[in-house]
Task: structure prediction
Amino acid sequence: MISLQADGSAMYSLQSLWTQARERLPVTTIILNNSRYNILIGEYKDVGAIPGRTAMNMLDLGDPALSWVHLAQGMGVEAARATSMDECADLMATSFESTQPFLIELMV
Ligand SMILES: Cc1ncc(C[n+]2csc(CCOP(=O)(O)OP(=O)(O)O)c2C)c(N)n1
Result:
């Protein structure tokens, strides 16, 4: 099973990684890490608003930077970071061969 997840919403469902480890579920989680609540920036644009620095800071997830590899490992799930689609594909292939949960932090 593949779980495709963005970093902002993953912050609301982090504990599900522990469930994956506890139940030994063969799930490949791919976190799309763009370090921000990007869709909400789009919402500002859609209503014609020009967000200031404070508003933009509220939508930024980069300070401090989240390490999804460490967060996953802390929940008992093996993990690795990918900075290219080739790396992501290699990690996916490795994960599919395993019966254990695995998380790929894909930097986008
Ligand atoms: C439980 C919950 N809390 C807050 C929200 C509000 N919310 C909607 S979209 C969003 C941020 C989405 O950011 P991310 O998941 O990183 O996706 P991106 O837009 O960057 O691709 C938030 C916080 C929500 N939908 N559900």
